[in-house]
Design a protein that fits this description.
The protein is an alpha+beta fold. It is built from ten helices and ten strands. Bound molecules: adenosine-5'-diphosphate, 2-acetamido-2-deoxy-1-O-phosphono-alpha-D-glucopyranose and magnesium ion.
């Protein structure tokens, strides 16, 4: 349990019956704080997920929660006829005073979800079926949100996937060098500059704005413990207007390599072609009927771009003295940057083969 936050008192601010029975930290996210909390109801333990929203990163937590409320209500209505529907969409628990968030005495914003039981999220992919299931679930998520009624969702982080602006932020971090680390990251800075020209490709490709998840990390989809099916997309803080390809690209980044994002043995980091193929097939199975030709033509490129973008984001944070991502060692962000750039290299080596796969899928005869 957190030393900084009174988790039990906070948990009791939500409309949950029974007695608070305990809490443990949960998950491996880099931004928010998540806890699994248990209440005893009629003698039985019932679990929930309590999260503190990082309001130094998400500057407008209420707008963010409005987005999540609209999105989860819309999705819940879409799956209302399906069996097991409560496990297919996140369910927000209202706070005792009404809204679906609670603000504590220190100004922290909290929210509570029902716990999706008999399902799991994985930090690294182990099988092609998992990759297929994750991509199918994220594609379905996008598809169900095509019809979200107006108004436009709030932007929870401005220019989140504007890669050219991410590059400018890197240049500023190098110039300021506040932590004196630029000298330690020379090879990585060179890789970044060698790829500058790819940063504006998607922005200039005239792609349609959609409602996208924007953080389609492999561990942001829950897989059913028994069937392995991708049942529920989670971590909705960055659901906002974006490009479908940012989501697909981030799947390639996080669900093709068998290694963890901060693996230090770079020989383990590789883009497994079989996983890429499973991602394409899973994503097209659910998103294939609404994607435009231009979107389909950039699927391969999106994996390269999002891997590069994440690499420069980690590098920027390393140079800025670890101001953004949670770290547990001095060079953590540099290690993370290195896995991204190793994966980028692996993608580049296989790009032609990936393109050939796409051609065979688009023109099977
Ligand atoms: P973060 O922003 O820290 O990544 P997430 O919302 O992704 O936060 O949650 C962290 C982890 O907690 C997830 O990877 C998943 O394992 C678990 N989790 C989140 N929401 C639920 C839920 N409603 N039911 C069960 N597990 C959940
Ligand atoms: C952060 O919250 P989490 O750990 O799922 C980040 C993503 C990055 C990811 C890299 C709001 O996601 O954009 O891709 O780390 N989220 C935010 O692991 O910046
Ligand atoms: Mg997450």
């Amino acid at each position: 349990m957190s030393k900084e936050h009174d988790v039990s008192a906070t948990a009791c601010q939500f409309q949950i019956s029974g007695e608070f029975a305990g809490a443990t930290t949960h998950g491996s996210g880099h931004i928010n704080d998540s806890y699994c909390v248990t209440f005893r109801q009629a003698g039985m333990p019932v679990r929930y997920i309590l999260q503190r929203i990082n309001h130094s990163i998400f500057k407008n937590p209420i707008a963010l929660m409005e987005n999540i409320q609209r999105v989860t209500s819309h999705l819940a209505a879409k799956v209302s006829g399906e069996p097991d529907r409560s496990r297919l969409v996140l369910t927000l628990i209202p706070a005792c005073d009404g809204p679906v968030w609670h603000v504590d005495a220190d100004g922290n914003y909290w929210r509570m979800y029902s716990f999706i039981e008999n399902a799991h999220a994985l930090d690294a992919v182990e099988s092609t079926d998992q990759a297929f299931q994750a991509a199918k679930a994220f594609g379905r998520f996008q598809k169900l949100l095509v019809e979200l009624p107006a108004p436009r969702l709030h932007n929870t982080i401005k220019d989140f996937h504007h890669t050219p602006k991410r590059f400018v932020a890197l240049e500023q971090a190098i110039a300021s060098d506040v932590a004196g680390r630029a000298i330690l990251a020379r090879p990585e800075i060179e890789v970044a500059f060698a790829h500058r020209s790819i940063t504006s490709v998607l922005i200039n490709a005239n792609l349609p704005e959609r409602i996208t998840h924007n953080d389609t990390k492999f561990n942001n989809v829950m897989l059913d413990d028994v069937t392995g099916e991708g049942i529920c997309v989670i971590d909705l803080d960055t659901v906002m207007p974006g490009l479908a390809l940012h989501d697909f690209g981030d799947m390639v980044r996080t669900a093709t390599s068998p290694a963890q994002e901060d693996e230090q043995d770079l020989s383990k980091v590789t883009m497994q072609f079989s996983m890429f193929e499973a991602l394409v097939r899973g994503y097209l199975a659910s998103a294939g009927d609404f994607l435009t030709k231009a979107e389909r033509q950039h699927l391969v490129f999106s994996g390269k771009l999002m891997t590069f973008e994440q690499g420069i984001r980690f590098l920027t944070d390393y140079l800025e003295g670890d101001a953004y991502y949670k770290v547990s060692r001095g060079e953590h962000n540099l290690h993370r940057c290195r896995t991204q750039f190793k994966l980028l290299e692996s993608i580049e080596r296989q790009e032609e083969r990936m393109d050939r796969l796409m051609q065979s899928i688009e023109q099977p005869y």
